[in-house]
Design goal:
Blueprint lengths: L3 E5 L12 H14 L3 E4 L11 H15 L5 E4 L5 H14 L3 E5 L8 H14 L4 E5 L1 H4 L5 H8 L4 E6 L5 H10 L4 E4 L5 H6 L4 E4 L6 H12 L3 H17 L7 H9 L17 H13 L7
Parallel strand pairs: 1-2, 1-8, 2-3, 3-4, 4-5, 5-6, 6-7, 7-8
Helix pairs in contact: 1-2, 1-9, 2-3, 3-4, 4-6, 6-7, 9-10, 10-12
Organism: Oceanisphaera sediminis
Enzyme class: lyase
Pathway: Amino-acid biosynthesis; L-lysine biosynthesis via DAP pathway; (S)-tetrahydrodipicolinate from L-aspartate: step 3/4
Amino acid sequence: MFSGSIVALITPMTAAGEVDNDSLKRLVDYHVASGTAAIAAMGTTGESPTLSTDEHLEVVRRVLEFANGRIPVIGGCGSNNTRQAIRLSQAMKAMGVAAGLSVTPYYNKPSQAGLLAHYSAITDACDLPQLLYNVPGRTGCDLLPETAGRLAELGPVIGIKDASGRLDRVSELKHCCGDDFLLFSGDDHLALDFVRLGGHGVISVTANVAAADMAALFRAALVGDWAQAEVINQRLLPLHQHLFCDTNPIPVKWACAELGLIDTSMPRLPLIPLNTSGKEQLREALLKAELTGRG
């Protein structure tokens, strides 16, 4: 259903902190032109925790409108409130997204049985295809492969974005979930190795600023051209690293603005703009990635 480089899309803001629809349209056009495989809108990189439900749904509607069928759209529908995750999933289904991206409940720290009950309740209420999202460093909750395997038995659950930072999870997930279960890396710096071990691609922060390069990298990897994939990956490695010099998506929003992809780098409080040290690190990383002047 999906493979390759999927962008974990930022949500551009105006200087006043409101959603910037003009910049959002430019981003969608940029990803279509760059060969990005799909857009994941209103995931956590899209600052979903700080947008209202109405804003959240409006961003996804706009992305679908701007995409106009040219690129698949995945809608973020995760929440630490199971009822809200159901409402978002149902709304995404009605809008016509290709799939949902559902992060594990953050802060609540549910048990594995709680995770099974959470996702079972969502899929019982809505048959939207769902990609699970495991990012324990941000949520305090680790969705284990055995639990993912049980969730894979639920018809709507089609895959996972794994940002556990552990490459051994690829073989464990394949064993527990089967060969048809989609496996996406959520760690840009590990994504090439993740695919080398049997993954299907990446849901990427780096793709926000290096869309064509990330698309080319994973096109090469998925046909086994590891030499070409490695050349691109080595050039992007400083970017993979320095895009996390501050809390995501603060650095990537600054980099997008620096390249002229969006008008301002403003995140929404409680996040604040990137500091001077971070800007210096990222400018150097953009130069090393040969992206300066290509925005």
